[in-house]
Amino acid sequence: MDGYNADSIIEIKDLNYSINNKEILKGIDLNIKAGDFIGLIGPNGAGKTTLLKCINGLNKADGHIKIKGTDINKYTERLLAKEVALMHQNTTVGFPFPALDIVLMGRYPYIKRFRAESKEDYTIARRNMDYTHTGRLEESPVTEMSGGERQRVLFAKTLTQETDIILLDEPTASLDITYQEQIFEYSRELSLTGTTVVAAIHDLKIAARYCTRLVLMNCGEIVADGFPQEVLTSENLSCVYGINALVYKNRITGLLDLYINRDTAGKKSELVHVIGGGGSAAGVLRQLYEQGYNATAGVFSQGDSDIGSAEVFGMKYLVEKPFTEISDEIHARNISYIKDSEITILCNMPFGFQNFRNLEAALNANKLVIIEDELPETRDFTDGKATALYKRLKETAAAVITSAQLHEVL
């Protein structure tokens, strides 16, 4: 117990691990507190899985690991299994055990040799199967389950081990999106009750949403460690993943979010102007950003949610005072943006007397694309004046599409 940090449940100091003289982990230092939900992130080969296996005692590494102040080498296998549970990435099970039998395997640290499972063991196992929505699979052979079902059964097994530390290696690799969210919601709930969760995660958005702390790894080393907003920066993601990512706080959810620009050729030459408002332009601006277009936007009313999207993606936009018609000056600038653009996109926006001049400005488009998810009559609050002009625009438009078809014209 000498040198034990009372605030840490896991202490790692100068940890190194090699296979055939190839360094996998290099000088890892990490202190983990009880109740932390830590996401290990980084590209393939960063060392995330290897680190989890070192914490679980499967990999014998050089350096020091303490669990609750005791050196990991002083634990017997059974005692360590009462402290640390690891759910592996590989969910393959070769023998057709019923799901309940699989989950009961999590009780092995507590069952003495040549003893059968107790009533309490069954109660704990069934409670965790109910928690993971696998109770109906109790008698089902694990070999006949879908990957997602098998993953949730193994998660129930991990919980049935009843440890204060849970290690998850890519826990949602075989799950559909619904159960991906559930696994991380469960993990967050567990951390709030004092259980420490350390998970290797490939999905950066999920890591940002659920984890209280992120550890970014690359080439066997820790590159960054801290709160999600401290670790998930554009600079870090560019350095480690080699991607152009925009990291920001989502105004709707209040959570950290990110968009990845996958256009490796850089900015496209085409200029695009987006006419929107009332939230109608947000998805369009995002798609333009992700595909590398130079874009401008407006005219928005002050306080419009589309302004937040334009600011996040670093796009120029025009704004007018709320509850007023677009002024001559702003109208002229809007026409200038439109004439300078090769494509003008008119979003599925509501029309009122305040933004009517946006439709007039669209008459100047070099190539007009209209997004129509709803008939203009249902969005017209100008006694039909906007609908009449909208129909004129449709006659000159290069394309009239739904939001889902936008990628076809970009």
TrEMBL record:
<dbReference type="Pfam" id="PF00005">
    <property type="entry name" value="ABC_tran"/>
</dbReference>
<keyword id="KW-0813">Transport</keyword>
<dbReference type="InterPro" id="IPR003439">
    <property type="entry name" value="ABC_transporter-like_ATP-bd"/>
</dbReference>
<dbReference type="InterPro" id="IPR017871">
    <property type="entry name" value="ABC_transporter-like_CS"/>
</dbReference>
<keyword id="KW-0378">Hydrolase</keyword>
<dbReference type="GO" id="GO:0016887">
    <property type="term" value="F:ATP hydrolysis activity"/>
</dbReference>
<keyword id="KW-0547">Nucleotide-binding</keyword>
<feature type="domain" description="ABC transporter">
    <location>
        <begin position="10"/>
        <end position="244"/>
    </location>
</feature>
<protein>
    <submittedName>
        <fullName>ABC transporter</fullName>
        <ecNumber>3.6.3.34</ecNumber>
    </submittedName>
</protein>
<dbReference type="InterPro" id="IPR003593">
    <property type="entry name" value="AAA+_ATPase"/>
</dbReference>
<keyword id="KW-0067">ATP-binding</keyword>
<dbReference type="GO" id="GO:0005524">
    <property type="term" value="F:ATP binding"/>
</dbReference>
<dbReference type="InterPro" id="IPR027417">
    <property type="entry name" value="P-loop_NTPase"/>
</dbReference>
